[in-house]
Amino acid sequence: MCLSFSVQAFSFTCTSKLLPCSQLKMRLQFWLLLVALTTLTSAINPGVKVKLTQKGLEYGRQIGIASIQQKLQTIKLPDVSGSQKINPLGKVSYSFTNMHIINVALPQSAVSLEPGAGVKLSIGGAFMGLKGNWKVKYLRFIKDSGSFDLNVSGLSITATIAIKSDETGRPTVNGDNCAASVGSASIKFHGGASWLYNLFKNFIDKALRNALEKKICPLVTDAIADVNPYLKTLNVLAKVDKYAEIQYSMVSSPVISATSVDLNLKGEFYNVGKHQEPPFTPAVFSLPSQNDNMLYIGLSSYTAHSAGFVYTTAGALSLYVTDDMIPASSPIRLNTQTFGAFVPQIAKSFPGLMMKLLVTAVKSPEPTFESNNATVRATGTVTAYAIQANGTLSPLFVLNMDGSVSAQLFVSGTRLAGSVSLNKMDLTLGTSYVGDFQVKSLDTIFQMVLKVIIIPKLNAELATGYPLPTIGKMKLVNTQLQLMKDYMLIGTDVQFSG
After folding, report:
1. Which CATH number fits domain 267-496: 3.15.20.10, 3.40.109.10, 3.40.50.300, 2.60.120.280?
2. Closest Cα partner for 294 from 58, 493, 469, 475?
3. Which end of the chain lies in a sparser environment, N or C, as judged by fewer CB atoms within 10 Å?
C-alpha cells in the first residue's frame, strides 16, 4: 500500500496574534499528517488471525530448552590466575586453565505470558559439571599442579522473550532482561598437596561462579535469537498457482495477552506480480477463547473473497465447453439438433452444426460464512455459439446466470482445500440472435453442464488447496476446522522436523 500525502497543498489565511503565522501553519500541517496516518493505521484490518496458546508455548519451551542446553555445553571459561596471601605461606600464586563443561542438566523450566511485554522463560534447579587444570606456586620456588572438578547446582536463569515484527512483516524475537545466578558450587581437586588448595578453596569457588554467571546470559540470548532464521521462513508471500499468490505479512505488532500470542496477518490474495487491492475491505472478527490446541488460525471470508477477485481479474474463471467434454453416454449433445428441440429457431437457422459454450464469471464470487455453513454466490454469463464448417463461431444467445454453491472445506497437510456442490441456478436471457425463446426450457441442459463439467473442473482445482501460514518444516496434527460467522477457524497442534 502506498500513501502519498502533501501538507504543502494546504493553504489558509492566517490572522493569529497569539503565534507567528509560520508556527501556526507548521502545527496545523503536523496535526493533519497525524490524523491521516492514524486513519490509515486504524483502517488496516487483518484477513487472517493466528493465535499461539499456552499449549503451543509449552511445545516451544521443550524445543527451546534443548537448544539452550546445547548452547551452555559450549561454555569455555577463560583462564583464571591471581594470587592470595595465605598464612603462614605468604603469597600463593595460582592459575586455573583448560576449563570446560562436561555435562548440563536443566530439569526445571517454565514459560509464561507477560501481557504487553513478551514471554518469560524461567529455568531453575539446573546444574552443570566442569573440569579443568590447576597450578600453584609459593615460597618462590615450590610448585604444585593437578586437575579439578567443579559441580554447580542451584543454577537459575530468567529471561524475557520479546516478540516484534520485522520490516518484512514476519515475527522476530530477542532476549531481554536476562539474569543468571549460581546457588552453590563444590570444587574437588586432584593431585598435589590437598592441605594447600583447601586453604583457598572458597575463594576459588567464588571466582569460578562469577565467571560462569557472566557466560550464561549471552548464550541464552543467542539461543533465543537462533529462532529468528526459522521465523524468517514464514511464507509472507506464498505462491498458489500461475494466477495467484497470498500475502501473510503482519499488519500490526504481535499482541501479548495473559493467555496467548496473537498475530494479525494481511491474508489477501493478489495476482502474481500485480498487487491490486480489491474494491472491498476486511470486516472485523475475533477468535474465540479456545486453548485446547497449540495454534488457531482464523481465515475470514475476506480472504476467500479476495481470491475470487484475483481469479476473476485474471480471466481464470472462464471456460469453453465443447461436446467432447460431455460423457458419451449422455443423450444431451452440444449441437444445434439438441438445442433445436428446445429452441426451434436454432435448428432451423443452423442445421446440423456442433456448438460451443463460453461460461464466464462477470463479477467476483461472493463467499458467505455462517455457523457450520459456507456458500458462494456466483454471477456469470453463458454464450452459445454454432461452429461453422470453416471453424467460424456464430453467436446464438447470451444467458445471464446467477447461482450459488455449498462449500465443503478441509485441511490437507498445510493447505486449505475444498469442494463445492450446486445449490441453485437461475438463468435469464441477456441477448438472443435467434429471436425470443423460453430460457426455462434450457435449465436441464445447463444444470447438466454445471454438474458434469464446470463443477468437477472447479473441484479439481480446489482439491489442490492453497497454503496456510506456516514456518519451516511445520506439520499440522490433530487438525479441526469449524465454520463460524464471517470466518473459518482451524485449531491444530504442530510438529517440527529437521
Report:
1. 3.15.20.10
2. 493
3. C
